[in-house]
Write a structure and sequence with these properties.
The longest helix is centred in the middle third of the chain and has 29 residues. The chain has a five-stranded parallel β-sheet, with helices on both faces. It is an alpha/beta fold and 155 residues long. Helix content is 47%, strand content 21%.
Length: 155
Amino acid sequence: MYQKILVPIDGSAPSTRGLDEAIGVAKLTKGTLRLLHVLDDLVFATGFEAGITYTNDILPSLQRAAERIVADGCARVAAAGVTADSLVAECFGRRASDVIVEQAKTWNADLIVIGSHGRRGVSRALLGSDAEQVARAAPVPVLLVRAAPETPVRT
C-alpha cells in the first residue's frame, strides 16, 4: 500500500506541510517518495522582455530556484530517514496540475500528497487551485494537506 508516493513541492508553507505528511506516510508504509517541482516558466514572462533576456537571465534563475527547492526537500526527507528521488518538470504553457497528473501516471504512483493553500471564495476563483485539479484528474488517491491556519493578531 502506498509504496510510490508523488509529492509536488514549490517551497511554500502548504507544500512543506504536504511533504511532512508524505514523509509520515512513507515511514508507515516503508514507501519511497518522488519530489516533483513543476517549473512554470511562463509565470514571470511579461512579453516585454527580449527573448535573449528571458533565455539568459529569467529562465536560468527559475531553474536554479527549482533545484534549490528540490534539494531542500530531499534534505528534509533524508533527515527523516526516508528514501526519495526528485524531478523538475516544465509546464510549457500547461497547468501545473496537468504535469503532476502526467507524472503520477508515468511513475506509476500509488498516492499523491499535495499541500493546498485552502483558498475559498473569490481568491480561489481568481487564482484557481492546482491541488483541486489534481484531485479531480488523478489516477490514484490524493491526500490534500491544508496549510496551517493563520494565528489571528491580537490587539
